């Protein structure tokens, strides 16, 4: 143990942290330059990014800290959002800091550009630290380089990508760095707090984090000397979850719901933390006895959960079959990877598969050493994330992030051979080829080499998706008096983020009835369905963006539906056309009857 500590620890800490700052600064500058146009036009491309900004703006305008209802969806009722304020803090703080210097609009632009880069810094630091602890003290350079090639992961840290996924990825890799920490107490606290912060943000990574906790307990079973890590992990997990709930749980999340850190999961985390602390204090030298105690503790925690919260044993969103069929099943990131094109699937899988293979190789090399359990965690997480890709593509960023660690372990010995080879050709071309192979860059090269053929229909959809959310396209609408709109659910977040208007619904599962109202309005053949929905929700405007992805679903699933009727010019008498500039991608009507 002592030799492992001295070999892999803080001998050149100051140097590597300086390199981390340099890498992060260079990456941040490059990404800002890359997204310069999008920053200028405030192109929050994702619905969740727009919703996050709307949430921050409402907070700065005086909405209560614990009130996370979005009152500009289905006003005046609002819809419940299952997020927490924790990710709002850096965005709001940057806006307040920059507003006196840049003014309101520019402060918002730059706050949304900079905030994701802070999450990237945390993720980069965790990745480099994990590579130092698991591979070698110098492996952080290779890990940073491979991470830069993990396109799906890096996309979560792009300027303007202010949704919570980037922060969750950072907490995931920091949790692994804690497991790899030879200083048991510090490592336990790191993993426990990273887990608590991640679950306070959202439950998306709960399967990974639950597995990490189970493996820390297993580590104690196999090695009683790990009691300090187990105790520190359990105490920090429970304390962090309690603090996260107290500080960030919204009024709605204080109900026994299953899709956020509510009393359901808070109670479970408190029970688990207390159980782990108690186990760590038990002076048992026998491995079989420790195993029995761990199994009993796990069974008790699971049993209490099943008895107290049976409603949370199924799907956490609790959406109805109708909502799943009409809406959720059409969400691209919720589809399995094999339903996407090979251009999307291959780059994600390339690094994920290479990383999994590298983690198995490193686990084999680490057998019988203190690094065996941390590499077991990385291997299982890599495998787990790849399997999740067969369920939902949204597992891609975590899958690639896990792949970075295994790919670093695989690439380090290969590059050591090529870089130290006698022949210059091998040192140069061999090292480049090795990096291209282990980093998964070859997948992107193949895609760029094979031209993509897009049909006219696909180009039309891409154009609509690109034009409709832009500030110039929305400007004529933003200049109109405030109103509530019946529009696509995917258009709702952008509408409320950059105008003073409201919408009936946004793409958030707690607003299931509102989403169905929108779905029924555009799918039904009888226009009176939409008429009734508009009256019931107080909507006075109807907005279409023909060709936008959501509209293709309505067009494909009912060719006689209300959306098709409107798009072809068959308009009921209770709607009056509102003229927009000739180049507008929108069609707009006003309710007149």
TrEMBL record:
The keyword Zinc-finger does not apply. It comes from the Bacteria. It comes from Sphingomonas natans. The keyword GTP-binding does not apply. This is AcrB/AcrD/AcrF family protein. The chain crosses the membrane at residues 16-32, 108-127, 139-158, 192-220, 232-251, 263-282, 288-309, 344-366, 372-391, 425-450. Keywords: Membrane, Transmembrane, Transmembrane helix.
